[in-house]
């Protein structure tokens, strides 16, 4: 396999051309039109989700998959449940607009360490209201770990240490596991691909899908404007005539601070691992281009054994993992679209454990609460106090719609939990909600 050891030359970097870029901030009419196009695609059964969920919750301090983690919402919902309910809501919106809707297919990439626990969790929660037939699991490849001098690291006396091959192993996996063929057989055209850890992720997002469809794009990416020049986020740009994500560590401070004539950052499009592919594009990658993807070296602390065979947890970096990146296929796109979205509405990743300053459960809950408060205020509601969280079930609203009848002209008290209930139950489980209830 080809291995990347060279950094990108900064002289080769160019900002994205205007013709590749769209923004949700530009025109409300565009947003509405794109949303209708995307909902039409959903209604016709041409949309699938591709979720990358191979990671454990190690950094969160738990021994199970990150998608199962309870971030601390009033409802107690985990990331998987939030996303499942967003799927159900988009199916309903598509059916309301076009009279009926076929199901969204949800393909979930797990790993050797997470597949069994993830499948059992979905089964144990009755698939969160989805049909079992529409939730398809598959595994990514595990790759041997190497020491810093290139030798294979042992996990035990009789087994080698292995790790998932990065989110870019997605393409090999959907080819080997029959996922691409399943998509083609079901008539899927538009695929929304994302990582499990973003609590604000819109899945699927009809606006994003509609934007890419209207532009006849085979590949697309959502971005958020960087919060500050040296923010630790990859940047989508052009490099030697190809689309590329350049890691923040590959860009000097001087380049990161460059600005346009109107005072905006020249390299501002922060990658949030939220992508669009057509099935034809994936087919092109899997049947030929996947072999051209390089492995990137990630230096890590890798558990191993000592000379007596006893387990050893290193205190410093002792090895490397070989990883492919999902965005390395951008360069193969014939028609690429970058859509700028609002960070406070679409990006709050769960990366660190409780109490961390950034990307912690507390920050995620706060960001979701702030978004839902903004939805209520936009719908004509207000709050009697400032303290307390606000949570709106995805089954009620995906993007702030459907709230005026419930909250307009009303002064609400925090904490507030707005949940969709049927005969006092939510998905078959008794619930307790503060404030308003929306009943079927």
How would you characterize this protein structure?
The strands form 9 sheets. The chain has an 8-stranded mixed sheet, with helices on both faces. A 4-stranded mixed sheet has the order 1-17-20-8, with no helix packed on it. Strands 2-14-15 form a 3-stranded antiparallel sheet, with no helix packed on it. The chain is built from 11 helices and 28 strands. The protein is globular and about 70 Å long. It has 440 residues and is of the alpha/beta class.
User: What is the helix content?
Assistant: 10-25%
Overall body shape: globular
The structure class reads alpha/beta
Strand arrangement, largest sheet?
3-21-13-16-12-4-5-6
DSSP helical segment count: 11
Give the termini separation. 55 Å
Low-confidence stretches: 1-6, 427-440
Q: What's the gyration radius in Å? A: 22 Å
How many strands appear in the DSSP assignment?
28
Main β-sheet: number of strands, strand sense, barrel status? Answer: 8 strands, mixed
How big a fraction of the residues is strand? 25-35%
* Mean pLDDT over the full residue set: 91
Summary tags:
440 residues, 11 helices, 4-stranded mixed β-sheet, alpha/beta, 8-stranded mixed β-sheet, disordered C terminus, 25% strand
SSE topology:
Layout: E1 3-4, E2 13-14, E3 21-23, H1 28-43, E4 47-52, H2 79-98, E5 105-110, H3 115-124, E6 135-139, E7 142-144, E8 146-147, E9 154-156, E10 159-160, E11 162-164, H4 170-176, H5 179-185, E12 190-195, H6 206-214, E13 219-225, E14 235-239, E15 242-246, H7 253-256, E16 269-278, H8 279-286, E17 295-300, E18 304-305, E19 311-312, E20 319-323, E21 336-340, H9 343-346, H10 361-378, E22 382-383, E23 390-392, H11 404-407, E24 411-412, E25 416-421, E26 425-426, E27 429-430, E28 437-439
Parallel strand pairs: 1-17, 3-21, 4-5, 4-12, 5-6, 13-21, 22-24, 23-25, 25-28
Antiparallel strand pairs: 2-14, 7-11, 8-20, 9-10, 12-16, 13-16, 14-15, 17-20, 18-19, 26-27
Helix pairs in contact: 1-2, 1-6, 4-8
């Amino acid at each position: 396999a080809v291995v990347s050891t060279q950094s990108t030359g900064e002289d080769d970097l160019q900002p994205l051309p205007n013709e590749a870029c769209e923004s949700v901030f530009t025109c409300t009419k565009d947003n509405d039109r794109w949303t209708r196009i995307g909902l039409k695609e959903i209604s016709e059964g041409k949309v699938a989700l591709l979720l990358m969920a191979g990671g454990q919750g190690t950094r969160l301090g738990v021994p199970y998959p990150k998608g199962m983690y309870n971030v601390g919402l009033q409802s107690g919902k985990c990331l998987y449940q939030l996303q499942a309910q967003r799927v159900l809501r988009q199916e309903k919106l598509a059916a309301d607009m076009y009279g009926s809707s076929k199901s969204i297919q949800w393909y979930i990439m797990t790993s050797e360490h997470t597949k069994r626990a993830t499948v059992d969790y979905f089964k144990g929660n009755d698939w969160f209201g989805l049909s079992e037939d529409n939730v398809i699991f598959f595994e990514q490849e595990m790759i041997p770990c190497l020491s810093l001098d290139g030798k294979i690291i042992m996990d035990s006396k009789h087994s080698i240490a292995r790790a998932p091959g990065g989110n870019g192993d997605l393409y090999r996996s959907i080819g080997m596991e029959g996922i691409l063929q399943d998509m083609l057989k079901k008539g899927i055209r538009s695929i929304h691909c994302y990582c499990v850890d973003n609590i604000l992720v819109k899945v699927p997002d009809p606006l994003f899908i509609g934007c890419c469809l209207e532009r006849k794009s085979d590949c697309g990416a959502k971005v958020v404007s960087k919060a500050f020049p040296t923010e630790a986020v990859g940047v989508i740009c052009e490099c030697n005539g190809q689309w590329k994500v350049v890691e923040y560590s590959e860009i000097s401070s001087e380049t990161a601070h460059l600005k346009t004539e109107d005072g905006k950052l020249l390299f501002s499009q922060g990658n949030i691992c939220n992508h669009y592919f057509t099935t034809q594009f994936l087919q092109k990658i899997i049947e030929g281009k996947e072999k051209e993807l390089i492995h990137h070296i990630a230096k890590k602390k890798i558990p191993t054994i000592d000379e007596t065979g006893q387990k050893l947890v290193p205190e410093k970096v002792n090895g490397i993992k070989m990883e492919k990146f999902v965005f390395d296929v951008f360069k193969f796109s014939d028609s690429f679209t970058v859509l700028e979205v609002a960070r406070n509405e679409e990006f709050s990743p769960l990366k660190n454990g409780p109490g961390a300053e950034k990307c912690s459960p507390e920050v995620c809950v706060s960001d979701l609460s702030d978004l839902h408060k903004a939805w209520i205020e936009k719908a004509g509601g207000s709050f009697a106090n400032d303290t307390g969280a606000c949570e709106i079930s995805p089954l009620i609203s995906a993007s702030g719609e459907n709230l005026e009848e419930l909250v307009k002209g009303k002064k609400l008290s925090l904490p507030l939990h707005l949940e969709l209930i049927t005969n006092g139950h939510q998905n078959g489980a008794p619930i307790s909600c503060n404030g308003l209830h929306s009943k079927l």
